[in-house]
Amino acid sequence: MSTRHESAHLHVSGRALYTDDIPLPANTLHGAFGLSSIAHGRIRTMDLAPVLASPGVVAVATAADVPGENNYGSAVHDDPIFAPDVVEYVGAPIFAVAADNYSRARKAARGAQLEYEPLPAILDIRAALAAQATVLPSQRLVRGRPREMLEQAPHRLQDTVYIGGQDHFYLEGQIAIATPQEDGAMLIQSSTQHPSEVQQIVAHALARHSSQITVQCRRMGGGFGGKETQPALIAAAAAVLAHKTGRTVKLRLDRDTDMLMTGKRHDFLADYDVGFDQSGRILGLAVMLASRCGYSADLSGPVNDRAVMHLDNAYYLEHVEIVSHRCKTHTVSNTAFRGFGGPQGMMVIEQIIDSIARTLGLDPLVVRRRNFYGTHERNVTHYGQVVEDNLVHAIVDRLAESSRYAERHKRITEWNATRPIVRRGIALTPVKFGISFTATLFNQAGALIHVYTDGTVLLNHGGTEMGQGLFTKVAEVVANELGLPMAAIRVSATDTSKVPNTSATAASASSDLNGKAAQAAAAAIRGRLTQFACETYGVTDNEVSFRDGQVFIGSQQLAFAELVAQAYRARVSLSATGFYRTPKIQYDKNTLQGRPFFYFAYGAAVSEVAVDTLTGETQLLRVEILHDVGRSLNPAIDLGQIEGGFLQGVGWLTSEELWWNARGELRTHAPSTYKIPTARDWPPRWEVRMLENCPNREETIHRSKAVGEPPLMLAISTFLAIRDAVAGVSGAVPGLVAPATPEAVLRAIEAIGTETVGERLSMVSAEADA
Ligand code: MTE
Ligand code: MOS
To answer: Where do the H-state alpha helices sit in 510-634?
Structure first.
């Protein structure tokens, strides 16, 4: 059902409470971090006396003040909360200060006197590869005989693909409030996708038990993966200050600090060697994939694994070798970001296919189709999973037809032949994205439902709300299960004391997981009510049904609230937990083989762009999307996810550029220099449709499919449309790097251009005269 977002009325009226809006106790302190100003070095001396003497300051905390473990690393314990002696990136937290207000805390933090002994810094992927610096061991996945096939192939291409990173730019920055409770307990209010991890890390930092730490999150103003591991750092620092002072400490990062301190999407480079036949079919492929992980492991292991496992996208790679290096650099530690490595893997193969097409003089869509997975053969991925419900053909066929791709492609080629200045480009690209956490254990969820005697329902589950509509979807599942209107269901804040040991709200799987868990809890209560009705009214359970807020018992009809009140008086339990674990999945992370994904989500998009070859500016003119969400849990919310995901992907690939200088300082740390798309970047002509009558063939919640991340990768069509326009200049294979900023576009044009800017300028006047 297209019910509106459960908080829509609060969002639009400004009444939704985000962590920063929570009323604070009178003696609350405000925190700020002191950061490293160098990329790599040893702290020789640290004088914090000026910080302590600064007006309003109550306490300072360093590594020495952490009572337990000074670490917030999730997978590997290599992320200090406060740098102990060595700093490894510009922006690394060294200490935190608590003062009586926010601006005084920030001002005080700048007063620290630090002297460093500089150490050599590795700043980019090539430098890390040369030094063999990695945060985790490299991975290698081979199928078939790629080397042999490369030797035999009639055509061969070798090139490098570079894909930039991305800042999450959630509108609400990182924030946590730590409030000491009695007897060593601590309450943490955190803007986090992963309350259970914040709980564990705060417990370790304070040397307490998990049972003493409670973490709550009502909602986030966006997370996009940036609040999967990073919030633990903010919460742990706030908790250490709260522990030291015995007072509530609120720690909120301003935008610049947030961008300097916290991890981003990994940038990648790929050196590839591909062999193909005259039709464009890939015969053999070898790829060296390397990503900038930053100074620590964080989630780089699974992010890079997912890049390896999405390097096929929709294509059958019979003979393939992928080597994946997880490079260590003295920059911020990169982390989860919508798509989790998948988008980068897909960008590699999509550019390879595009280059093959241009080399052979074929339409890239023709080459794509020749390489698609088959439905009954050529349907096993390089990691051993069978593609069971290949929807790529159906989606691409329909979209190519509805968008009149072939006709437009031809028209654009003709247009470009006569107009040298403003070129057009078009591309149609598919998406196949695996749904489930690759680490099998995370694919579990719990829920807790209370029914009160007035017949209203309070729902709690392990997922968090970040704008994606999870709470709405799960509430709809419960409403449906109990035959109640949405108004009867209230979703409460995610809370580690209600549902324990939860997984991060991530991998797009949260409605699959929490929806099923909540359904199980609701079904348990409905079962008890049904049994009570049978005993009380002398009917059998198939004579009892729940709908429209009523319970139908044989020939009688009762308000749900009335049956609940009767059941309460008869001492029937009206509270239940539910649990779900995803079936069928198994995966060996050492060999990268198995069935890591319960199913795949599919989609495709056509983008048409205009590129000004004199300025390098691009404009997205038109987009059409056809996306597979199975049987949608909520079409309105899913549409929002598709549109938002797509545009966020367009930002990643066209305008959002992270730029570090030679000292390893990120210079793009505010909206003045870092350009995210705005509403005006949405194309003037667009159409977004969901694939209809196509329920998930796996037994997911109401046969829906996950939708949070896959649409981001539809934006690859926009990048390749720009590449198409750039190629139009000479027909050669353009070396366009992502993001395709005006500078990148101009560089690509210059590199392959047959004419210089001056010559093109003279053509402008010719074009104007004509
Ligand atoms: N949508 C909004 N509005 N805000 C967000 O932060 N995060 C994305 C996606 N959609 C995000 C979003 C990411 S990275 C993921 S993994 C999924 O939502 C997580 O939620 P889900 O599992 O409920 O889809
Ligand atoms: Mo999303 S990157 O899995 O939080």
So the answer is: 510-537, 560-569
Q: How confident is the model at residue 408 (pLDDT cuts 50, 70, 90)?
A: very high
Helix (H, G, I), strand (E, B) or coil at 112: coil
- The tally of CA atoms less than 13 A away on the side-chain side of residue 576 is 21
pTM: 0.97
Decide: residue 369, CB within 10 A, 0-12 exposed, 13-18 middle, 19+ buried.
Answer: middle
Average pLDDT, the chain: 96
d(CA 565, CA 559): 10
Q: Which atom of ligand 2 is nearest to the CA of 709?
A: 1
Q: How deeply is 469 buried, as exposed, middle or buried, from its count of CB atoms within 10 A (0-12, 13-18, 19+)?
A: buried
- Ligand 2 centroid–CA 164 distance in Å is 18
Secondary structure (3-state) at 457: strand
Cα-to-centroid distance, 226 and ligand 2 (Å) = 8
Percentage of residues in the chain having pLDDT higher than 90? 94
- With a CB cutoff of 8 Å and minimum separation 6, the contacts of 47 are 112, 113, 114
How many secondary structure helices (H) and strands (E) does the chain include?
A: 20, 29
With CA atoms as reference, report the closest residue to 477 among 511, 445, 444, 439. 511
Closest CA to 675 of 694, 641, 693, 652: 652
Please provide the DSSP assignment of 385-452 as one string: -B--S--HHHHHHHHHHHTTHHHHHHHHHHHHHH-SSEEEEEEEEEEEEEES-SSGGG-EEEEEEEE-
Closest ligand to Cα 224 = 1
CA distance 429 to 412: 17
Residue 728 confidence (pLDDT)? 80
User: What digits encode the pLDDT tens for the residues 319-367?
Assistant: 999 999 999 999 999 999 999 999 999 999 999 999 999 999 999 999 9
Cis amide prior to 118 (ω within 30 degrees): no
Q: How far apart are CA 710 and CA 343, in angstroms?
A: 9
Query: Are 603 and 707 a contacting pair, CB within 8 Å?
Result: no
Which residues are bridge partners to 95 per DSSP? 34
190 close to 464: Cβ distance less than 8 angstroms = no
Residue 389, pLDDT above cutoff 60: yes
Whether 757 has a pLDDT exceeding 80, the answer reads no
Beta-carbon-side half-sphere exposure of residue 190 (alpha carbons within 13 Å): 33
Say how far apart CA 56 and CA 105 lie, in whole Å.
Answer: 8
Ligand 2 atom with the smallest distance to the CA of 223 is 4
Q: 146 and 319 in contact (C-beta within 8 Å)? A: yes
Does the pLDDT value for residue 397 go beyond 60? yes
Q: Please report which confidence band the pLDDT of residue 755 belongs to, taking 50, 70 and 90 as the band edges.
A: low
Is the minimum distance from the CB of 709 to ligand 1 under 6 angstroms?
Answer: yes
Helix axes 716-728, 742-752, angle to 10 degrees: 40
Instruction: Return the ∠ at Cα 190 (arms to 56 and 246), rounded to 5°.
Output: 40
How many other CB atoms are there within 10 angstroms of residue 245's CB atom?
Answer: 16
139 C-alpha to center of ligand 1: Å? Answer: 28
Q: Which residues are catalytic?
A: 709
CA-only gyration radius of the chain, Å: 27
From CA 66, how far away is CA 410, in angstroms rounded? 65
Percent of the chain that is helix, strand, coil (3-state, to 5): 35, 25, 40
753 vs 693: which has the higher pLDDT? 693
310 vs 729, higher pLDDT = 310
Report how far residue 419's alpha carbon sits from residue 184's, in angstroms, rounded to the nearest whole number. Answer: 72
The response to whether residue 510 sits with its C-beta less than 6 Å from ligand 2 reads no
Measured at the alpha carbon of residue 89, what is the angle toward residues 68 and 656, in degrees to the nearest 5? 120
User: Pairing mode, if any, of strands 457-461 and 213-217?
Assistant: unpaired
- The whole-angstrom separation of Cα 330 and Cα 662 is 12
